[in-house]
Write a structure and sequence with these properties.
Layout: H1 2-13, H2 16-32, E1 42-47, E2 54-59, E3 65-70, E4 76-78, H3 80-101, E5 105-110, H4 115-119, H5 132-135, E6 139-144, H6 153-169, E7 175-179, E8 184-188, H7 198-201, E9 205-207
Parallel strand pairs: 6-7
Antiparallel strand pairs: 1-2, 2-3, 3-4, 5-6, 7-8, 8-9
C-alpha cells in the first residue's frame, strides 16, 4: 500500500531526483543565456502531470516570474521576454483600473508564453510595438474584487468606456475579459475592441453565477 502511494505521488509530482536534475539543468541554462538577471532569485521546479515534463519557475525580486521549460526535443527554452512585457502591462493597467473603478483589482495580461511568441521578442520589446498576430492572441484578465455592481447603467457604461479608451489609446489592444463582484462578466474580442459602441457595453454583460 505504501509503495502504491509513493508511486502515485511520484506520477503526479515527479521524483526528487527528477526535480533535482531539472533544477540543475535550469541553473546551467540561466548561466548561459544573455539576460540581465539579478544574482539572487527564487527557483522552484514542478512536474506537469499532463505532459510528464518538468518546468522551473523563476521569481525575480521585482516580482516578475518566468518559466524554463523543455520542448519536445528535450531542449530548454524560457518565456522571460514575454513575462517582462506581461508584467509591465499588468501593472500599468492595475493602476488605471483602480483610478477608473475606484476598486481594487487583480489584473493579468496573458500572452500565452509559448516558445513561438517569446522568440519574437527581445530585451527592449514593449507591448505597443508587437505585431497584430501576437496581440490578437493575448488576453487582459481583470477581476474587480470589491463591492462593485452594475446597478447604475450610466455609470457602468462610462467607466467601461474609459477603460476601453485607455486600452486603445495606448495600443494595448487585446482580448479583454472583465469579471465583477456580483457575478457578471464582459468578454470583448480583440477585433471588436475598437468598434465597440458605448451602448453595446452593457448588453455584453453576462451573469455567470449568483453569489450569496
Amino acid at each position: 500500500m505504501l509503495a502504491m502511494v509513493v508511486i502515485i505521488n511520484f506520477s503526479f509530482k515527479g521524483t526528487p531526483w527528477g526535480k533535482a536534475n531539472f533544477t540543475k539543468r535550469t541553473q546551467q541554462y540561466l548561466s548561459q543565456i544573455n539576460y540581465d538577471l539579478p544574482n539572487e532569485y527564487d527557483l522552484s521546479t514542478i512536474r506537469s502531470f499532463k505532459t510528464g515534463k518538468y518546468k522551473s519557475v523563476i521569481t525575480l525580486p521585482n516580482g516578475i516570474y518566468f518559466q524554463v521549460l523543455e520542448d519536445y526535443s528535450d531542449q530548454l527554452f524560457d518565456n522571460y521576454y514575454t513575462a517582462k512585457v506581461e508584467s509591465t502591462v499588468s501593472n500599468e493597467a492595475s493602476k488605471v483600473i483602480k483610478s477608473i473603478f475606484e476598486d481594487d483589482s487583480r489584473v493579468n495580461l496573458d500572452m500565452g508564453g509559448g516558445y513561438g511568441i517569446n522568440k519574437k521578442l527581445t530585451e527592449t520589446s514593449s507591448y505597443t510595438n508587437l505585431s497584430e498576430d501576437v496581440k490578437m492572441h493575448a488576453t487582459l484578465y481583470i477581476t474587480l474584487v470589491n463591492s462593485y455592481t452594475l446597478l447604475d447603467e450610466n455609470i457602468f457604461n462610462e467607466k467601461c468606456s474609459k477603460l476601453f479608451e485607455w486600452i486603445t489609446t495606448n495600443n494595448y489592444d487585446s482580448n479583454v475579459f472583465i469579471s465583477f463582484n456580483d457575478g457578471y462578466v464582459i468578454n470583448i474580442d480583440y477585433n471588436e475592441l475598437r468598434v465597440l459602441k458605448d451602448e453595446d457595453v452593457l448588453r455584453r454583460a453576462v451573469k455567470l453565477k449568483h453569489r450569496e
